[in-house]
Amino acid sequence: QVRLEESGGGLVQAGTSLRLSCAASGRIFRIGVMGWYRQAPGKQRELVAFVTDGGLARYSDIAKGRFTVSRENGTMVSLQMNSLNVEDTAVYYCAAKSGPGSIEASDLWGQGTQVTVSS
Fold it and tell me: How many CA atoms lie within 13 A of 5 on its CB side?
């Protein structure tokens, strides 16, 4: 069984940066795409960014120009978030697809890490 574990969340001031990390562990045969979703209070979960197992990164509009997603050794994914604002406050979830498929078909999820941005 594969587990995803996030780290790096916390309380920061607007305009600062934060880095989230996610590591997969367990009986890993193959992990395809890995990425990040977030869910703010009262809102639906939304895709932030993802990176394929080939290293191709894609960003949603909320992340472009401020966030950078990267992948290390195939089982770890990070999200560098710069110029944070209060609208970035949310629970951030690491997501991955075991085997081929899209990020929208993720079948592996972390427990989530809280990011709170104060004004």
Answer: 6
Q: What are the C-alpha distances in Å from 15 to residues 19, 46, 73, 87?
A: 14, 22, 30, 12
* Tens-digit pLDDT profile for residues 75-104: 999 999 999 999 999 999 999 999 899 999
Query: CB of 95 within 8 A of CB of 110?
Result: yes
Taking only the tens place, the pLDDT of each residue in 65-78 is 999 999 998 899 99
Give the C-alpha separation, 73 to 77, whole Å: 9
User: Residue 81's pLDDT is what?
Assistant: 98
Instruction: Evaluate whether 37 touches 51 at the Cβ level (below 8 Å).
Output: no
pLDDT value for 28: 79
Question: Taking a C-beta distance cutoff of 8 angstroms, is the pair 66, 45 a contact?
Answer: no
d(CA 56, CA 3): 23
- Contact by Cβ (8 Å): 8, 25: no
